[in-house]
Amino acid sequence: MQFKINKKLTTGLLIGAVVGGVSTASLNVFAFKDNSTAVPLEQLRKFTEVFMRIKRDYVEEVDDKKLMSDAISGMLTGLDPHSAYLDEDAFTELQVGTSGEFGGLGIEVGMENGFVKVISPIDDTPAEKAGIQAGDLIIRLDDKPVKGLTLSDAVKIMRGKPGEPINLMIVREGKDKPFTIKVVRDIIKVKSVKQRMLEDGFGYLRISSFQSKTTKGVAEGIAKLVEENGGELKGLVLDLRNNPGGVLNGAVGVSDLFLESGKIVYTEGRVEDAVMRYDAEAGDILDGAPLVVLVNQGSASASEIVAGALQDHKRALVVGVKTFGKGSVQTVLPLDQSSAVKLTTARYFTPAGRSIQATGIEPDIKVEPLKLTNGKDKTEEEFQPLSEADLAGHLSNPTGEEEKPSKSAQDIASEATKDEEKDSKEANDAKNKNLVETDFQLFEAQNVLKSMVLIKQLK
Fold first, then answer.
1. Residue 219 CB partners (closer than 8 Å, separation 6+)
2. How far apart are CA 291 and CA 309, in angstroms?
């Protein structure tokens, strides 16, 4: 997820929401100078008619505030999968979520055709430890079907007191039937940066999400690796797998750490404030040492900015599989002290002018996610995970290059909601102690890094 809070844009964009509560006689006061954004009088009359019919004829009395809130929510969710109305709870959750500490299960989620879709489990959280995977569709929360709930309602159910369990019914590509995973709620304290030495001279640094302090965390993590190594690193693996994104400034800051100069990312949108460009400042924290960026289809948004920038500048080799393909920027526009709209306002482009919207970042070296177990290769994922191109109503790619949607789990999920019998199944994937021996992608990334070091020495 990428967003920025922008009050300057608020005035122009909120007019459409305000006029819903005024009489049609005063509508002309709110017309824009640009005819393309003038208030649609006939459509507002139709809206008023529907509003009054519901107030008068609906089987139960409905509160005006709820009707207007639902109308605003529907208007935004009809745009694209990432625009949304943030009520008081959702707005607070968004602000708290970027700080790195919050309560819940530890998953980044979105809504897909009425179901909760897992974008990515967060490292070292109850969801990740229980076996929740990127691309999973959650169709039941305990005994409550997800279909018909808003994302905010679903999140409220998943939140709760630490220690309280919740059963999530999951639909996963490659599985014939839904299965249930039990997750115990806890206080989620996200440490977005972790590091360790792979072997002498070679460091490993993982970013699980981009927060306001991530750039500082990366710099400190590399400093610790240098200290542990007893000198400068020969090379570094930067792991962005299953990183769903985060704040834009975090991605820009991390990219800048490894770049001496040049463009990092730029955005294009319809309003002046949506057009931005970010450039690197002098100074490479690795002093030119080889760098490998590890990605998968759970790498989205801010992760793709970093991977794209380092790839375009030929500063790093990108290893893994094609990324998620979320190339849009969301702006949070406060409506008042307790609510806001999250609106897609721009597309972002890599330094070479590539839009990754619905296409993703193609790795320089493709390495499928395999695991090494007792000397035998086993496929970790037997299905194609969901990507941005699979989301209903996603933004198109302005260059016309777009990935064709893969087969999704929607049919399975729809059938499962009709079947009240639950075929429960526990999923507990033990965390492996030795990362390189059990993580095939990292194993190959380290081999690539060694080759880069060797080539550099031979020059």
1. 257, 285
2. 13
Give the distance from CA 24 to its chain's centroid.
40
* Helix axes of 248-258 and 302-312: crossing angle, nearest 10 degrees: 30
Burial class, 358, CB count within 10 angstroms (exposed 0-12 / middle 13-18 / buried 19+): buried
Closest alpha carbon to 110 in 69, 155, 66, 147: 155
Of residues 109 and 229, more confidence is placed in 229
396 labelled catalytic: no
Q: Tokens in use for 235?
A: 């090379």
**What one-letter code names the amino acid at 108?**
E
* β pairing state of 165-171 and 137-141: antiparallel
Distance CA 138, CA 136 (A): 6
pLDDT score, position 402: 66
Residue-averaged pLDDT of the chain:
82
Active-site choice (239, 312, 390, 439): 312
Catalytic one of 73, 83, 255, 301: 301
Cα-Cα-Cα-Cα dihedral sign, residues 358, 359, 365, 366: positive
- Over residues 57-87, the pLDDT tens digits come to 999 999 999 999 999 999 998 999 889 999 8
- Copy the structure tokens of residue 302: 């801010």
Torsion sign, CA atoms 94, 100, 104, 107: positive
255 is catalytic: no
Cβ-contact 251, 265 below 8 angstroms: yes
The residue behind tokens 């994937």 is 429
Kindly state the tokens that stand for 402.
Answer: 């777009």
* Set 117, 234, 263, 326: catalytic member: 326
Measure the CA–CA gap between 339 and 82, rounded to whole angstroms. 17
| Alpha carbons 118 and 50: distance in angstroms, whole number | 35
Q: Is there a catalytic annotation at residue 186? A: no
Q: Give the relative orientation of helices 214-229 and 248-258 as an angle to the nearest 10 degrees.
A: 30
122 contacts 134 by C-beta, under 8 angstroms: no
Of the candidates 245, 244, 253, 124, the residue with the CA atom closest to the CA atom of residue 194: 124
Q: What are the tens digits of pLDDT across the range 247-293?
A: 899 999 999 999 999 999 999 999 998 999 999 999 999 999 999 99
Do residues 150 and 89 touch, judged by C-beta distance below 8 A? Answer: no
Residue 122 is encoded by which pair of tokens?
């967060």
Residues 156, 109 contacting (CB under 8 angstroms): no
Q: Which two tokens stand for residue 283?
A: 């100074």
pTM of the model: 0.75
Per-residue pLDDT for 23 more than 50? no
Locate 276 and state its tokens: 């931005």
239 band by pLDDT with thresholds 50, 70 and 90: very high
Is the Cβ–Cβ distance between 131 and 429 less than 8 Å?
A: yes
